[in-house]
Amino acid sequence: MRRTLFFCLIIGALIDYGTGVDPTNFKTCEQSSFCRRSRKVQNSGSKYSLIPGTLNTYSDSLTADLINKENHHQFTFKLEALVGSTFRLQIDEKTPLTPRYRVEHALKGQPETARIRVQESDGELTITADHSKAVIHGDPFRIDFYEKDVLVVSVNAKNWLYFEHLRKKPQAQADPEGGDESQQQQQNVETAGEPIDDPGSWEENFKSHHDSKPHGPEAVALDFSFPAAEVLFGIPEHADSFALKSTSGTDPYRLYNLDVFEYVVDSKMALYGSVPVLYGHGPQRTAGVYWQNAAETWVDIYTTETNVVSSLVNFVSGSRKTTPPVAHFISESGIVDAFIMLGPKPMDVFKQYAALTGTHELPQLFSLAYHQCRWNYNDERDVTTVSAKFDEYNMPMDTMWLDIEYTDGKRYFTWDKFKFPEPMTMIKNLTDLGRHLVIIIDPHIKRDTGYFFHNDCTENGYYVKTREGNDYEGWCWPGSASYPDFFNPVVRDYYASQYHLSKFKTVNEDVMIWNDMNEPSVFNGPEITAPKDLIHYGNWEHRDVHNLYGHMHLMGTFSGLKQRDPNQRPFILTRAHFAGSQRYAAIWTGDNLADWSHLQHSIKMCLTEAVAGFSFCGADIGGFFGNPDSELLERWYQTGAFLPFFRAHAHIDTKRREPWLFPERTRLIIKSALLKRYSYLPLWYTSFYELEQTGAPVIRPLLAHYPLDKEAFAIDSQLLVQHRLLVRPVMQQGVSKVDVYFPAIDDKKNGDYWYDADTYQRQERSGYESIPVTENKIPVWQRGGSIVPKKERQRRASTLMLHDPYTLIICLDRQGKADGTLYLDDEKSYAYRDGQNIYVNYEFANNQLTNRFIGKPKYKSDAWIERMVIAGLDRVPTSASITVNGVTQQLEVEQRNNAINVRKPAIKMDVDFVLKLNY
Questions:
Q1: Which of 312, 327, 686, 713 has its CA 20 to 30 A from that of 720?
Q2: Of 240, 251, 591, 756, which one is the catalytic site residue?
Q3: pLDDT at position 321, please?
Q4: Which residues of the chain have pLDDT under 70?
C-alpha cells in the first residue's frame, strides 16, 4: 500500500510539474485567518498608547510600556539607535503566557549601536542620533523618523498596529446560564474586536490539511508610511514588477517559502524565498524597513493612486498633497522587530541593509562564468560528452551540474553505481580541463533502514517532530522522507560533517553544492510544504520559523564546505532564502517557463533580489519548463549573460537543448553571448569584491544612480552593472528595435554620455531612444566617465584565464575624464582577506591615464595590460607615451570606429605608471 501511495504521489507531482501551477493549492489572505483578522484593522484602526511613567532611557535606546486601550493588555516597547542612520523598533508582550519567537541567524552579527539624546516636550519624545531623529507620539502611539529634518518614515501613522496576545484557549461553555467563573473572566477580557470569534483562531483547515494552532491567535502587524516616497519596491520573491503595485482590492504580497512550479508572472503569490525588506524612494529621499519575522507574512501596499476619493478631493480643492505610500506588514506569529533605515540616497539605504544582514562573500571566479545543467545528465558518459562538445564547438563553459538522478535512489551523499560507477574519474576529467562539477543535495531524507543518514537521524532524534513527538514523515522525490531539524546546532554539525572527504569519499574538494527543495517542499503537505504545527529545536513551532528553514540548511552546507577545505571559498546555490542567506549562497528564480514573459521577469526579479541583498541571482536560461524556439533561446542567453548567475537548466521532460543541437546560426549567436560574458568577467569579479567591501549591489535599478529622474523609478526592463554598464536586453519576440531609456542626472533632463559597448557610438541625450537591433545585438552601453576592465582572449574555462592580459575600456564624460577600479587575486582562496590581492583605481584626466593602488599590492600576478581603448576624445592623438619607474616608452595609437586603441603598453598589474596621449 505504501509503495502504491508513493508512486501515485510521485506521478501526481510529475503531472503537476508538467501542467503548471494550480493557484488553488495555495492560500489567499482570506483563507489565512490571521491575515484576514489583521487586515480588518485597516477599516477601524487600533488603539495603542504609551503608558505614562514607564519610560527608561539609556545611552543608545529607550524603553517604555504600551497598552492596548481596548483590552488593556500591556506590551514592552524598545527603540534603539544604530550606527549608520538606522533605528531598531521592538514590541513584545510584557508578560506572555509563553515566550514569543525572535528571529536568529539572519543578522550578520549584533548591530553596533549609536549614542542618543532624548528631549521631551508637549507629550512628544524626540530621540536624536547624529543626523537622524525619531519623534515618538504617546497617544495614539506613532513614531516619525526624520533624516536631516525631512520626514521619511512614519510608523503606525495609519493606526494599524495589531498585536494578538497569547491567551488560554476558551473551553466550550456547558451551562450558558452559569458557567465556570475563570472561563467567564477569560471571556470578559475579550471584546468585539478580538479574534476569539474568528473560526480560524484556534484551529484551521485548508483542503484536507488541519492546523491545530495550540497557541491560538498570535499575529503581529504594523504599518509604515513613506512621506518622501513616490514608489515602493523590495520584498522579494515575487514574479512581479520591480515597483510594487497597490494591493487595494486584491490580495497582499505574500512572503512564505513555497515550492511553486511553472509560476505565473505579474503575480503577488509567494515563491521560494522571503526577504522582508522594503524601500520607499522619492526624488529627495530614500528610506527602508526590514521587518525581521520568519513566519508567514503578507504585505499590503497602498500607493498615492489608491484613494480615488481623496484624489478627487485634492483635485477639486486645488491641493497638491497626496497620501504617502504605505506598507502594512502582517505576520502570523513572533514579535514586532523592525529596522528603519533612513538613507538618504538609494545606495545609502542598500548599504545600511547590507550592514545588518551581510553580503555575499567574494565568489570563486568560475561561479561567475557559464554553468551547464539539466535534470538530468544521464550518466558519466553523458557528462563527459557534453563537456567535450563545448570544446568541439569552441564554446567556453565552466561547470557541469548533476540533478537528483545521480544519487542511489535519491539518497544524498551517494552515487548511482550503475550510471556513475567512477565519479572520481569523471570529476578528474572535468578538473583537468579547468572545469568544475556541482551536485544537488536536498534536505528531504529517504526513510530507508539501509541508508546511513536516515538511521543516524532516527537514532539520534535529528528529525523535525510532530506535535506528538514523533519524527515527521512527508513525501518528496525519495518517496517517504523526513527532514533534519537544522535549527538544532548538533544536527547542523552532523550534516556539515557529511561533506568531509573522509566520509563523502566519491567527490573532491572542488565539487560544489546545490541545495534545492528546501522551502521545505513536501508533496503531500499543506501548500506543498511542512505543516505549521511541527516542532523544532527549542520547542518552536514550524509556523514561527518556516521562512528560515532553507537558511538553516544553507548554514550547515556552508559550514561543511568550509570544514572540508578551509582555504577554498564555497559555492552554493539555493532556492529557499531569507534575509541574510546571501552570506552563504547564490539564488536563482526557480521553476520558470520557456516563455517571453518569464524571460522579461528574470530581470525584474533579480533587480528586486539585488536591492534586497541577493546580487548573485540568475534565471534558468531557456526556461525550466517547456521547449524554447531558437529565437527565445538566443535572446535568453544574451539576457543571462548580463545577470550575475549564468546557468542553463531544463526539466527532465524537455527536449535536449545544448547549443549545438540547434541550427548553426543559433549556436553562433549563443557562442557570441558566452564570449561576451567571459570578456566581462574582470568587471563582474571586481563588482563582487566591492559588494563584499561596501554592500553596494552588483546589478542595480536606474534609480540607484539617477534618483531625481521620476521616469526611471519603475523601469525594470533595464539594469545597471554597478554604475558602469547599462543593459537593455532584447526580450520581445521578432523585434528589430527596442526602446531604451537613458536616465537624466538632474531635473533639467541633462544626462550622462553613454557609449555603445560594441561600436563606441555615443548617446548624449537623456530620455527614450529607439535602438535598432540585429539577432546578434545585445544593447549594452558603457557610461561616460567610467573605466571597465575586460579580458578578451578566448579560453575553454575561466580558470584558464587567470594570467591572461587585461584590456581597459575608457569612456570619457563631458569633462574628458573617467575612472574605474579593477580587483584581482588568485580567484579561489581566502588569501585575499590577508591582503594577497591587487586593488587599483585607474583615472583618466587631461589626456593622461594614471593608476592608484588601494592598499599595497601583495598578490603576484603574471597578467598585464595589453590594450587600452579610449572613447570620447575630441581629436586623435599621434602617439602615446608611458612612463614606468622614470623610464618613458613610445606606444602606437590607432583609430578604430569611434575610439582609439593604445597597443601593447605591457604593464604588469602591480606597477605604477603614467600614460600620456601626444598630439
A1: 327
A2: 591
A3: 63
A4: 1-19, 172-196, 305-321
The burial of 121, by beta-carbon neighbours within 10 Å (0-12 exposed, 13-18 middle, 19 or more buried), is given as: exposed
Q: How many C-beta atoms lie closer than 10 Å to residue 501's C-beta? A: 13
Strands 399-402 and 370-372: parallel
Nearest by Cα to 131 from 113, 119, 114, 156: 114
CA pair distance 241, 239, nearest whole angstrom? 7
**Among 248, 253, 264, which residue's Cα sits nearest to residue 612?**
253
Q: Annotated catalytic, 591? A: yes
CA-wise closest residue to 213 among 93, 95, 295, 299: 295
Tell me the pLDDT tens digit for each residue of 731-779: 999 999 999 999 999 999 999 999 999 999 999 999 999 999 999 999 9
Note if the bond before 376 is cis, omega within 30 degrees. Answer: yes
Written as nine digits, the cell of 657 is 537543448
Q: Which three cell numbers stand for residue 39?
A: 487586515
Contact between residue 573 and residue 588 where contact means Cβ atoms under 8 Å apart:
yes
Around 105, how many Cα atoms within 13 Å sit in the side-chain half-sphere?
22
pLDDT in tens, 592-644: 999 999 999 999 999 999 999 999 999 999 999 999 999 999 999 999 999 99
> What does the DSSP assignment read for 550-573?
HHHHHHHHHHHHHHH-TTB---EE
Give the chain's end-to-end CA distance (angstroms, integer): 87
The yes-or-no answer on residue 180 being catalytic is no
Q: Is 6 exposed, middle or buried (0-12, 13-18, 19+ CB in 10 A)?
A: middle
C-beta of residue 29 within 8 angstroms of C-beta of residue 251: yes
Residue 4 is predicted with a pLDDT of 39
Question: What DSSP string runs through 429-495?
Answer: HHHTTT-EEEEE--S-EE--TT-HHHHHHHHHT-B-B-TTSSBP-EEETTEEEE-B-TTSHHHHHHH
Q: What's the confidence (pLDDT) of residue 305?
A: 58
* Residue 570 neighbours by CB under 8 Å, 6+ apart: 512, 513, 557, 558, 561, 562, 584
H/E stretch holding 588 reads: strand 586-588
DSSP three-state, residue 872: coil
- The pLDDT value recorded for residue 607 is 98
All residues at 6 or more sequence positions from 113 whose CB lies less than 8 Å from its CB, including other chains: 59, 60, 61, 80, 81, 82, 83
Cα–Cα distances in Å, from 490 out to 486, 536, 537?
A: 8, 13, 10
The catalytically annotated residue of 144, 442, 485, 516 is 516
What grid cell was written down for 744?
A: 537624466
C-alpha dihedral sign at 630, 636, 642, 646: negative
Residues 234/273, Cβ–Cβ less than 8 Å: no
Q: Which residues contact 146 (CB under 8 A, 6 or more apart)?
A: 132, 133, 134, 135, 152, 342
3-state per-residue secondary structure call for 47-88: CEEECCCCCEECCCEEEEEEEECCCCCEEEEEEEEECCCEEE
pLDDT of residue 384: 98
Is the distance from CB of 793 to CB of 805 less than 8 angstroms?
yes
**3-state percent helix, strand, coil for the chain, nearest multiple of 5:** 25, 30, 45
- Side-chain-side CA neighbours of 323 within 13 Å: the count stands at 20
Are 278 and 232 in contact, with CB atoms under 8 Å apart? yes
Determine which helix (DSSP H) or strand (DSSP E) holds 545, and give its type and residue range: helix 542-545
Q: How many CB atoms lie within 10 A of CB 43?
A: 7
CA dist 356 → 12, 552, 580, 613 (Å): 42, 18, 8, 10
* Residue that has been written with the C-alpha cell 471571556 in this structure: 187
Contact between 899 and 870 under an 8 Å Cβ cutoff? The reply is yes
CB count in 10 Å sphere of residue 763: 18
